[in-house]
Design brief:
- By secondary structure, this protein is an all-beta fold.
- It contains no helices and eleven strands.
- Strands 2, 4, 5, 6, 9, 10 and 11 form a seven-stranded mixed sheet that branches. A four-stranded antiparallel sheet has the order 1-3-8-7, with no helix packed on it.
- The chain is globular and about 40 Å long.
Length: 128
């Protein structure tokens, strides 16, 4: 089992920044494919950003967040971070951390059903 725990969500005004953290409550994420997804009320869960589990750590981004969000992984701390800058009201959603030990490519890393492990989600609200 690799239960994941997200933290760092909250309410911010447009243009502000937040950093989300994802940590496993057991096990290690250093070699896993990791990703952030988000889900707004009434909408499907959508891919935000992901990183492969191999040493190259190739990252993949949703077009909607390019240039604003960055993902980093600290294997020493066994944690993954999502830095969100220039937040917009349309970024409002529950953000989920996901992990799987499968190797993924650009198409598969974006599909929620390819991930075995999920966190409980953390709410991000962007409004004035």
């Amino acid at each position: 089992q690799l239960p994941l725990v997200e933290s760092g969500g909250g309410w911010v005004q447009p243009g502000a920044s937040l950093r989300l953290t994802c940590e496993p409550s057991g096990g290690t994420i250093s070699t896993n494919t990791m990703a952030w997804f988000r889900q707004a009320p009434g909408k499907e869960r959508e891919f935000v950003i992901g990183i492969r589990g191999n040493s190259g750590g190739q990252k993949f981004y949703a077009d909607s967040i390019k240039g604003r969000f960055t993902l980093s992984r600290d294997n020493g701390k066994n944690a993954m971070y999502l830095q969100m800058n220039s937040l917009k009201p349309e970024d409002t959603a529950t953000y989920y951390c996901a992990s799987d030990n499968k190797f993924m490519i650009a198409s598969t890393i974006r599909v929620p059903t390819n991930y075995r492990y999920w966190g409980q989600g953390t709410q991000v609200t962007v409004s004035s």
